[in-house]
Design a protein that fits this description.
Layout: H1 3-9, H2 35-46, H3 50-84, H4 87-135, H5 139-143, H6 147-189, H7 191-198, H8 200-238, H9 240-245, H10 249-301, H11 307-348, E1 370-377, E2 386-393, E3 398-402, H12 409-416, E4 424-429, E5 432-433, H13 439-444, E6 446-449, H14 460-465, H15 473-482, H16 486-490, H17 509-523, E7 527-531, H18 539-553, E8 557-561, E9 573-578, E10 581-586, H19 588-594, H20 597-606
Helix pairs in contact: 2-11, 3-4, 3-6, 3-11, 4-6, 4-11, 6-7, 6-8, 6-11, 8-10, 8-11, 10-11, 15-17, 17-18
Length: about 600
């Protein structure tokens, strides 16, 4: 990957957000960029249900036709009853109307049932695609995104789209057919009254244009603000212990208030402008009704039309403006759904993690011989984090990485695991450039134990089995015993079948670390990466963890990111980094004898100075 590509795709994970940056402050939300294109992409997820969709359209055609036939027959009934006093035919016509409205209701029920099926299947496919795509994105992508915002796209935006698909397709089809049929029948009965009815259309479209021009902006902003507030809530709930520790409740509440106010304002204006639509339509309905009754009454008195025609027109005028009203309302709903769909497609369109080279090969095992040869790397062009780094770790050796924050320790690990690719130089595993090895097979040879253990909301057994999914229960328990975790697991309410809370909060930090070590043992990696796995642990638990780590590291090439230097005295090789360069190299005693930077670090920690 070139420096420019890294600049565009990645951010420095060691960097921190500036305190002054206010993510919740209202900003101008982008407009819906491409309604037609987004709708076409949604159709791509629906197209595998064409047969069912045709049935929905057929039901829409039947229900629309019956809804047009009912008012016409009602007008004919009125004329016969008034003009000819044919009371005998009244019962017949009412029976026919009853059958018509019954079948219309049935067709509406079927079209809604089938459309719900289509909508749920469509959103199911989209949600699967989005989640699967998220798993293929690079680490850099997630370092730049709030998890709450991503969750909002998976949940809120998807549900918004689901609700829209449930109703909008039917509403649009029904409204279009009803409007077309109504105009044809009205023209046949009375062109003059039809003209009066259509007078409201230009006024209606002018008003709708003014309204929808504003609703699109605010619906988009509402979705953005919703994602932002979800992200902030997730961040605050995850870090609640830090908030309590530093007594920052008031600060968090105020920041939430700003975000909540932004969501309230965008939602207020979106709903306010969209609320003008039914008011406008009701006013135009009343104007149309008054014109038809007034002019129609004059025409009837002069014998130009019958009373039944007036009845038909008053019904059709309502039936004509109602679908126009529905179209207008649905347009706002669709704008909101399209805004959410664009947010979903924005993630789906993100480039996946760089593909393996065409000639990359799988590896089934490695000896663990690791070489960095003149490796340089920067997250941003012109800002190298690593500068001409070279070292060699032989099979089974333990290499410790020490140095101040931002020196490049984590970056070395990120390059070794191919979360990023070096800008210059080569990284060799058993003499083979890692860019010629598939990422999946390379990472299968590596085990990681982080400072903050990541556990899942499932049983203890399945958390350990995550290291090797096909492991038997016996192998899981053996790994736990080797990791000194079996003792505390046996004391849990259901032992290995105890379900842990989210992130394993129901057990202690040290116990979570032991489970992480057991998971790594089960994976049986050739290369082990430890990120200060014994930090913030009590003395007794630390002894258990160190004993488990010694067992885990035996015979494996191990990289240890160390902050507490007394934990790496027995490392075969210690690399001292500063400003992205290896400034010292050797074992513990050799580096002490040099009386350089490492010597000063050790003495500072012995004197309890802060490094």
């Amino acid at each position: 990957m070139s420096r420019q590509q890294n600049k565009e795709a990645n951010t420095n994970p060691n960097s921190q957000q500036l305190p002054g940056r206010h993510r919740g402050a209202p900003v101008k939300a982008p407009k819906v960029k491409n309604i037609t294109g987004t709708l076409y992409r949604i159709w791509g997820y629906m197209s595998n249900q064409k047969g069912l969709f045709i049935l929905v359209l057929l039901m829409v055609l039947i229900s629309s036709s019956l809804s047009l036939l009912g008012p016409y027959l009602l007008g004919v009934t009125v004329d016969k009853l008034i003009a000819n006093y044919e009371t005998s035919s009244l019962i017949t016509m009412l029976s026919i109307l009853l059958v018509i409205y019954l079948f219309q209701s049935l067709s509406v029920w079927f079209q809604n049932y089938w459309m719900i099926t289509i909508a749920q299947n469509t959103v199911y496919r989209m949600r699967n695609h989005l989640f699967s795509h998220l798993q293929q994105l690079s680490m850099a992508f997630f370092q730049k995104r709030q998890s709450g915002d991503l969750m909002s796209r998976l949940t809120n935006d998807m549900e918004n789209l689901s609700r829209t698909l449930n109703s909008s397709v039917i509403q649009f089809s029904t409204s279009a057919l009803t409007i077309t049929g109504t105009i044809i029948i009205m023209l046949w009965l009375s062109p003059l009254l039809t003209f009066l009815t259509l007078l409201i259309v230009p006024v209606m479209f002018g008003g709708l244009k003014w309204i929808t021009k504003r609703t699109g902006y605010y619906f988009k902003e509402q979705q953005r603000n919703l994602g932002d507030i979800n992200g902030y809530m997730e961040e605050s709930l995850t870090g609640h212990n830090i908030i309590k520790m530093f007594s920052r409740e008031k600060k968090v509440i105020e920041e939430f208030r700003v975000r909540n106010a932004a969501l309230k304002d965008s939602g207020y204006w979106a709903q306010t402008y969209s609320g003008f639509i039914p008011k406008l339509m009701n006013m135009l309905n009343n104007v149309s009704f008054a014109l038809i009754v007034g002019v129609g009454g004059i025409l009837a008195l002069n014998g130009m039309i019958s009373i039944g025609v007036i009845v038909i027109f008053t019904t059709y005028s309502r039936q004509f403006t109602r679908p126009l009203n529905d179209l207008a309302n649905q347009f706002n709903i669709i704008l909101s759904a399209v805004a959410g769909a664009e947010r979903v497609f924005n993630i789906i369109d993100k480039e996946e993690e760089k593909s393996d080279e065409a000639d990359a090969t799988d590896i089934s095992s490695i000896q663990g011989d690791i070489k960095f040869e003149a490796v340089s790397f920067g997250y941003e062009e012109g800002q190298d984090i690593l500068k001409n780094v070279s070292f060699h770790a032989g099979p089974g050796e333990t290499v410790a990485l020490v140095g101040p924050t931002g020196a490049g320790k984590t970056t070395i690990i990120s390059l070794l695991t191919r979360f990023y690719d070096a800008d210059e130089g080569e990284i060799l595993v058993d003499g083979q450039n890692i860019q010629n090895i598939t990422r999946e097979s390379l990472r299968k040879q590596m085990g990681v134990v982080l400072q903050d253990s990541i556990l899942f909301e499932t049983t203890v057994r399945e958390n350990i089995r995550y290291g090797r999914l096909n492991a038997s229960d016996e192998e899981v328990e053996q790994a736990a015993k080797r990791a000194n975790a079996h003792s505390f697991i046996s004391k849990l309410p259901k032992g290995y079948d105890t379900v842990l809370d989210s992130d394993g909060k129901s057990i202690s930090h040290g116990q979570r670390q032991l489970l992480s070590i057991a998971r790594a043992m089960l994976a049986n990696p050739s290369v082990l990466i430890l990120d200060e796995a014994t930090s913030s642990i009590d003395t007794i638990t630390e002894m258990k963890i160190n004993d488990a780590l010694d067992t885990l590291m035996e015979g494996r090439t191990s990289f240890v990111i160390a902050h507490r230097l007394n934990t790496i005295k027995n490392a075969d090789q210690i690399l001292v980094l500063k400003n992205g360069e290896i400034i010292e190299k050797g074992n513990h005693q050799q580096l002490l004898d040099q009386k350089g930077f490492y010597h000063d670090l050790v003495k500072a920690q012995e004197n309890k100075d802060v490094i």
